[in-house]
Write a structure and sequence with these properties.
globular; alpha/beta; 16% strand; five-stranded parallel β-sheet; Rossmann fold; six-stranded parallel β-sheet
Length: 325
Amino acid sequence: MKKILIIRQGAIGDVVHTTNVFRSIKETFPDAQIDYLTGKLPASLLQNDPRLNRVIVLKDKNYFYLFQLAKELKKENYSLIINLQPSIRFKVLAALCKPKKTVNYKKTFRLHAVENFFETARKVYKEIHNPNDLRLKIPQETVEQVKKKLPYLTEKKLVIMNYAASPARHGRRWPLEYYKELCTKILDRYDCNILISGAKEDVKEAKIFKKISPNVHIIAGQFSLLESAAIFSLCDVFISGDTGPLHIASAFEKPVCIGIYGSMPVGRTGPWGTNHFALSSDMYCVPCNRRRCKLKDFKRQQITPCMKSVKPEHVFRVITDNDLL
């Protein structure tokens, strides 16, 4: 099985969680040629990875496009397709590519997502070993570029707080006022810089951090995904709800990640690695894994009761008790 196509289209965090599949195959079989099919945004994280032969960007998900794509991919004569996308349309795509063998991912909540993806590949490669960490490859030139744009990145200890979260899933967003309170607690005790990250649509809300201290810097909406990943790789502590940026940050050697969890099960999507932490609510309904909170007692910010129950002092205690700064 020397020529392989891996398929995973979707959330950034999910794609990050698949990286141990091609990492372990390449380490065990250095001659393997591995292509990866994914969406445009996560593709930017993989396109410079030397372990991959090629990253193919999925331009659409409709069947007409997928049929045309399958015609092109069929010419590659893949030995194996590892389809990590559970939907029917991608199973059809894999079948139309006519590989010698196909293995399809089946989601289960009995395993962490990283293990779940990895076990799909182990159906074929019994020899591979799943590392207890994740490792994304970011070009050094991108790291140097962000250092030039943000000179304070290496001046002192660095904390990044990512408060952005998709509104599609309740139970992933921590209150802004909690982040603000945590900023104050950290700066009262430690001489460090704090960066506030997020998407372009989060810039307006981020303004509440401006008056806290000159050591608080807002970078929300200013950088590409690859540049953001380079910045995350330089920080010492990364704090976030269960989002793509949290899992990107967990895939580097340096930062210690503190994940704040509400509705999602930590055992399924907690930061993968031995040096990370996850805080979760002790409410009776956690983890419900629901897209929408059934309790319905949250307001416009869509902050669920389970996320509100994890307090700033809980996160601060993780930092102090483990000497993270």
